[in-house]
Amino acid sequence: MARKQMVLSNKEELKSDLELAKYFKAFELSTEFRRIKFSDKSLFHHLPRLIKAGIEYQFLSYYFGSVPKWRVLARKLLSAKRIAPDYVMTGPSKSGSSDLVSHLLLHPNILHPLAKELRLYANKDWRLYYPTVKEKKNLERNIVGPARCGYLEPTLSNLKVLERLHDVNPDCKVIITLRDPVARAYSYWKWEIFVGGSRLKQNKKMAYFQDYSKYIERALDLFPSIKMETVCGPQVLESGIYYKAVEQWINRFGRKNVLVLDVAEYFQDRQPVLEKIQKFLGIPVISIPEYGKKTNENPIKLPPPDPKTKSKLAKFYQPYNKKLFKLIGFEFDW
Fold it and tell me: In this protein, which residues make up the domain named Sulfotransferase (predicted)?
């Protein structure tokens, strides 16, 4: 895709398609790897595709999380001075941020890190994942407005990340994408099942994972005294309590530097939300092409949540949502 003009002709539409694909390919390959892991068939059955996908994965320009070690080492050997993020896009896990983050990368003023989720809080070499100072200067010679590059990981409640980012750049713009916590809990359960794969299926002590209502019933029973068992890491209920984490970001970076969004509005109509973000980041407002498929969407199909469980969760989250809405000064349709 032409960095300045987006789509102007059939030839440039082809470029746009290729540009779109490169920002979404890592998610598709990661999902495919997990799908194979989730499959009941042997790895030998999937071997041809694994080899092909594995080779393709080595040479991507943008990764979901895990980056081939040789790519990071190559950057380290270059010893070039690298930039730090000047904006943050974060939220809870399974809030739909992957799609929003990846579409914003299509903007000509946006530079992308090597990976969306680079574990800044645990990665001493995190700056290697960012573009060089020279790359940023070269881009700014050919665009109108500033060049931006973001920290894109869903670590809303991780105070180590918050403080590290503030130390690096106290003037960071912070975009927080939230999702109705009732819908997010169901999506998170599905992700637990998908990531856990056969290992979770075979664990009789965690049989309640196979039934969403039992899973939520156990989480509600244990809250807040005991942590719920998890495959993915975050706690299913606590991850949907947003107000205190949002408050920390506002207190640290200033209210004018924090934009809070409901991801449901984005999936209903991407462009108005993308335009709001562009204005917030101080970059030219353009129409960003849409990839079509939802990024990082769970491919497995499971029974929908029953009304009783949804009602229980809605009642559980109501007081916390009220605190959030009071903090940000407006309400979402949750």
Answer: 85-284
